[in-house]
Specification:
This protein is of the alpha+beta class. It has 6 helices and 15 strands. The strands form 3 sheets. A 7-stranded mixed beta sheet has the order 9-10-13-12-11-14-15. The chain has a 6-stranded antiparallel beta sheet with strand order 1-2-3-4-5-6, covered by helices on one side. The chain has a two-stranded antiparallel ribbon with strand order 7-8. A hairpin with a 2-residue loop joins β12 and β13. The model has no long low-confidence stretch (mean pLDDT 82). Bound molecules: zinc ion (ZN). Zinc ion (ZN) binds next to loops. This is FLYWCH-type domain-containing protein. InterPro entries: Znf_FLYWCH. Keywords: Metal-binding, Zinc, Zinc-finger. Residues 5-64 form the FLYWCH-type domain.
């Protein structure tokens, strides 16, 4: 895959592992060695060294998660620009006046996108819910996959947990977690989406999203058990969560009362 892309203004960019880098400069005395900086300059110090399109070195960790969607969009837009330029460059001026309008072109793209990304209908009940393989995988870049389905209890009280498998290690080393549920974005037939974020690399990152069938205590218990099975030895020092979870989390993560460092906060 061509990792080199171009922005609308012609700025040279490079994609790697779900991150986008902007061209900075070439090495003095070695034009083939290129230096790139993360496109979120100012907030992220990550940099990349490449030679002839191959990555030699990454420096510093990113202060944010990767964005496969963002990378794919940037690649698609670059390809689209190339395609349009190549298609139009040889069209005589008289014929150019007859080209479809911007809105007509937009409609063509939209129609095609709907065909490619047709989403299955929402299931009426849990028994009907069968996860397609493409929803179980997280693709950092074309050809590089990791598991995105972390756990599915497949029980009557269905709990499904999504998140990048590789990011569970951040949960393990992070001292501070943030946990809360939300209802408004929850797809039926689930009742709520519960999210756990972790502090890491100077930022706070979402680690997993759990679809829960209700807000019963044993459901939360089961959810955290499932996460512990997916990533054993989790020992958070601080969890910012609703007061009602304190006792439950003490049990799950075996925090002796005396060394308890859990904090409580209102809604995230
Ligand atoms: Zn970055």
């Amino acid at each position: 895959m061509d990792r080199q892309i171009q922005s609308k203004r012609g700025v040279e960019k490079f994609t790697y592992n779900g991150f986008i880098y902007v061209f900075d400069k070439c090495s003095k005395g070695d034009d083939s060695l290129k230096f790139w900086r993360c496109e979120r300059r100012g907030r992220c110090n990550a940099r990349l060294h490449t030679r002839d399109g191959n990555v030699l070195k990454e420096t510093a960790n990113h202060a944010h998660d990767s964005s496969v969607g963002g990378v794919e969009v940037a690649i698609a837009l670059t390809n689209l620009r190339k395609l349009i330029n190549n298609s139009i460059v040889n069209v005589p001026p008289a014929a150019q006046a007859c080209l479809p309008s911007t809105s007509a072109l937009r409609k063509i793209v939209r129609r095609k996108r709907r065909q490619i990304h047709a989403v299955p209908a929402n299931p009426i009940n849990m028994n009907e819910l069968i996860l397609a393989e493409r929803y179980k995988i997280y693709q950092t870049q074309v050809g590089v996959d990791e598991s995105f389905l972390l756990a599915d209890n497949e029980e009557d009280q269905r709990i499904i947990i999504f998140g990048r498998r590789s990011w569970l290690q951040h949960l393990q080393v992070s001292n501070t977690w943030y946990a809360d549920g939300t209802f408004s974005v929850t797809p039926r037939p689930f009742y709520q989406v519960y999210v756990v974020l972790a502090e890491r690399f100077g930022g706070v990152h979402p680690i997993f999203y759990a679809l829960l069938p209700n807000k019963q205590r044993n459901t939360y218990h089961r959810m955290f058990q499932m996460i512990k099975e997916a990533q054993p030895n989790l020992m958070p020092r601080t969890i910012n969560c609703d007061f009602e979870f304190l006792q439950l989390l003490r049990i799950i993560f075996r925090k002796p009362q005396s060394t308890d460092v859990f904090f409580i906060c209102p809604k995230i």
